[in-house]
Amino acid sequence: MKKIVAMILTISLILGITGCANKEITPVSRETFALGTIIDFKVYDKDQDKSNQVIDECIERIKDIEKKMSANMDNSEVTNVNKNAGKESVEVSNETMYVAKKSLEYSRITNGKFNLTVYPLVNLWGIGTENARVPSQSEIDQAISNIDYNDAVFDETENTIYLKRENQGIDLGAIAKGYVGDEIKKIFVKNDIKSAFVNLGGNVMAYETKVDGSKWRIGIQNPLDTRGEYLGVISVKDKSIVTSGNYERYFEQDGKRYHHILDATIGYPADAGLISTSIITESGIDADALSTSVYLMGLDEGMKLIESIDGVDAIFVTKDKEVYTTSGLKDNFELTNEEFTYKK
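RE: above sequence
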């Protein structure tokens, strides 16, 4: 008997205390569905018409990016690259080129665990869709044989991407939402928005501060409990916070959970001892890629990587209910759930 669990609202970070002390400014709140999840906006400005216009602009920008980078839309740039694998180069936009090259960068950093060309494996498992299943080992081996980030050829003069072999494919699902968050931030800056909070289904962008000047308090989701139950809280200003966990999208078969974070080197969902990783930094695209990367790498390698990057911090939650943070969070993370142990 197989139980499929597809979380539409894949929120890995839950807004903790976001109440606004300045009662003169009421946020304009809006939800939209894009990128396979519900996106929630809270924009604070004295002019609510302006806030609504800014949200409209953000939604249009999100749709434009999705049409280019989705691997599930028939005529997206990514889909066209995949359809022409082993045949010809495909011209893409500057931003698809940028995001794909970022994905290639993290493919190299993780020695292929995070992988730009993971699409054959993602498509095979179908996690998060009605077709989710455990493939046979021969199917997994075949998919892995088509995964090699070195087979992605970038021509920046012609702005094209080419995959060397048929049945190969790129997938930007582990990084595109982070890029979207960065683009939304640009819209806020352009329109002189002073305070805003956006939840892109687990990718949180806490823009500037709350209107009273205090930091945003963000509750970190307890990966072993229902939505809205926290294991701890951090305070941030103008940061992106992205969490990857085994509870976001998964299905169960024969009593075993199969989650969506696939290790391209073995062909199965990652099992490196972690159940949740959160990245806190200014860059959404880096936070998105790093949250998946360190989940795949495991605690020791992941901690070493994050500590080597300036301006990036992380929270790691292990199977043993232990919580580890990088040095930059030692005085800014409060464990609130006694079920877990904070290993400082």
